[in-house]
Amino acid sequence: MRLIASDFITRFRPSLCDLRVWLRHHDALEREETEYELVLRRLGNRHEQQHLATLGECLDLSGVAEEERIRRTSEAIATRVPVIYQPAFRVMQRFGDIEAEIVGYPDFLIHDSDGYIVRDAKMARRIDEENHPEILLQVQLYGWLFEQSVGVAPKILQVFNGMEEIVPVAHDGASALVALERIAAIKRTQEEAYEPVGWTKCGPCGYNERCWNQAEANGDVALVPDVDQSLARTLNSIGIRTRRELLHNFDFASLSELKRPVGNRQQRVGKKAERILQFAEAMEQRTERILCTPAIPALPNYAMFDLEGMPPHLDELDRIYLWGVQVFGENPSEFMPAVSGFGSDGDRDGWLAFLANAKKVFETCGDVPFVHWASYEKTYLAKYIQRYGDPDGVACRVMANLLDLLPITRESVILPVPSFSLKVIEQHVGYERKLTEGNGQWAMAKFIEATETADEAKRKELMNEILVYNEEDLSAMWAVFRWLQSKTGETISAPQAS
Ligand code: SF4
Fold first, then answer.
1. Taking Cα atoms as reference points, which of 260, 183, 215 lies closest to residue 19?
2. CA angle 120, 126, 130 (to 5 degrees)
3. What is the separation of C-alpha 341 from the centre of its chain, rounded to a whole number of angstroms?
4. What is the pLDDT of residues 289-303, one digit of tens each?
5. Cβ–Cβ under 8 Å, residues 416 and 437
6. E strands along 195-319, which residues?
7. In which order are the strands placed within the sheet that holds 301-309?
8. Which of 436, 439, 434, 437 is nearest to 421 (CA)?
9. What gap in Å lies between CA 91 and CA 148, rounded to an integer?
10. C-alpha span between 395 and 401 (Å, rounded)
11. Which of 133, 141, 308, 310 could form a disulfide with 322 if both were Cys (CB 3.0 to 4.6 A apart)?
């Protein structure tokens, strides 16, 4: 069996999943890379090349066939070549009855007085157990491969991270081997093992369509909102694989008593059992159920509010590049986007433009609610008040008027849907987007492209695409809002027996 250091990345990224390891090992067809993934790959390569350029003359083994590369790596180490780029190691190792060849290509070997430094370049900013265990394991495996191949341990293991810092990694070949043994066991399995799907877990995965379609076709219990991964595995282990089986075998009392592992403990499902059964029933019968009147204040106008931002690992500033606002209701406004500029003050300029827009909204409509979906808008409003201040108190006024539609929706209706993501709920209420391929990652990829191009016309075109996407987000949220409002007059269903 062949095991490679990047198997750790396969298992942990974009989410922890054993099935992804198995599918790749069995050459299962994966979707093509998205625009976002291609941008990430390009940025990663650039980061690596920029670091390489600072290391002086090197022996470049990238592109050399594996056998030859291993041989030349060994020769170069023996003659103390100062910098070896893309070396290769291969070591045979037995895990029980599995005979495996373990292969690794670190980015750099750097000679330092009496030994070699093993260093990898990564875009990630926080290299630790909590944020990137796969990077630690990968680099630790390189250290072990070096030691097995050369006969002495490398001087030190390091990562050149996305903040352009050198981060040391502890030598721990034993941990890397334990983690690799698990991967060997997954690869060896003949049959595909059960792996619960999850909205966040599967969303960015290349096998999303495959696994999701399969789960839908099977009526998999993991599709029920509030059934977490651990509960889905526990149910599966006692033969409950579908929603129908769940409803047939459990009532509120028995499901709430069922225990599943959470951390190091066994925890009862508890009160969540009621909602799980309600959701399972709604999905089976394809019906919706009103639990209570949605807590929406009756007002003439509402501002829909949605932000587009860059995650901290891609942008030094952890920046919001688009603050989208539009008033709907009796006095509707135009779409009011505030876009971060591309110069050094761009981030602040975007914030000030948003405050000017919000001020205009208050002047025209008074204290309207700023309606948003989930906690992202509130978190970033607070961050930007900290970062640049709030000279006229407009941001604090927006903060006081925030109305998060997600908890209102969750508390008031049971829907036959697998997630309370806005994209799913808007489809349920019948909203149709013109821009079908757009999502948050797609918009980020467009923004990165816009940041990097020197062609003004191209930049404008890219930014326009993002604006269209954000404007549709606001319209979709308004459609969900109106739909929820329409439920305020409907009869509330009787609670399920508990
Ligand atoms: S789609 Fe989900 S279950 Fe399937 S391989 Fe990816 S993360 Fe795993």
1. 183
2. 110
3. 26
4. 999 999 999 999 999
5. no
6. 259-262, 265-268, 289-290, 301-309
7. 336-339, 320-329, 301-309, 370-372, 402-404
8. 439
9. 7
10. 10
11. 308
What separation in angstroms does the CA of 346 have from each of 43, 312, 319, 338, 463?
21, 17, 10, 11, 14
Please name the residue whose Cα sits nearest to atom 2 of ligand 1: 202
Domain 2-188 fold is Lambda Exonuclease; Chain A (3.90.320)
Pairing verdict, β 370-372 and 402-404? parallel
CATH 1.10.150 segments of the chain: 199-287
Closest Cα partner for 94 from 8, 180, 173, 189?
A: 180
Q: Note the pLDDT of residue 184.
A: 96
The pTM for the full model equals 0.88
**Is the sign of the CA dihedral 460, 465, 470, 476 positive or negative?**
positive
What gap in Å lies between CA 47 and CA 139, rounded to an integer? 17
pLDDT tens-digit map of 199-258 = 999 999 999 999 999 999 999 999 999 999 999 999 999 999 999 999 999 999 999 999
Q: Which CATH architecture has domain 199-287?
A: Orthogonal Bundle (1.10)
Q: Which of 49-63, 155-169, 212-226, 434-448 is predicted with the least confidence, judged by mean pLDDT?
A: 434-448
Residue with tokens 């996305």: 162
Residue 11 one-letter amino acid: R
Name the pairing type of β-strands 89-95 and 156-160. Answer: unpaired
Where does the chain hold its CATH 3.30.420.10 domain(s)?
301-489
Instruction: Report the separation in Å between the CA atom of 384 and the middle of ligand 1, taken as the mean of its atom positions.
Output: 35
- The percent of residues above 90 in pLDDT, for the chain, comes to 83
C-alpha 193 – ligand 1 centre gap (Å) = 12
CATH architecture assigned to 301-489: 2-Layer Sandwich (3.30)
Beta strands in 310-374 (DSSP E): 320-329, 336-339, 370-372
Q: Looking at the chain, which residues constitute the CATH 3.90.320 domain(s)?
A: 2-188
Ligand 1 pocket list (CB less than 6 A): 15, 17, 19-20, 23, 195, 197, 201-202, 205, 207-208, 211
The amino acid occupying position 27 is D
Pocket test for ligand 1, best of 31, 211, 214, 236 (most atoms within 8 A of CB): 211
For ligand 1, mutation pick of 201, 221, 236 (most atoms within 8 Å of CB): 201
C-alpha span between 421 and 427 (Å, rounded):
10
Give the pLDDT of residue 318: 80
The pLDDT value recorded for residue 498 is: 37
Q: Looking at residues 366-373, what average pLDDT do you find?
A: 97
CA gap 197, 365 in Å, rounded: 44
Q: How confident is the model at residue 491 (pLDDT cuts 50, 70, 90)?
A: low
Amino acid at the residue 21: V
CA–CA separation, 296 and 485 (whole Å):
7
Length, in residues, of the chain: 498
**pLDDT band for position 497 (cuts 50, 70, 90):** very low
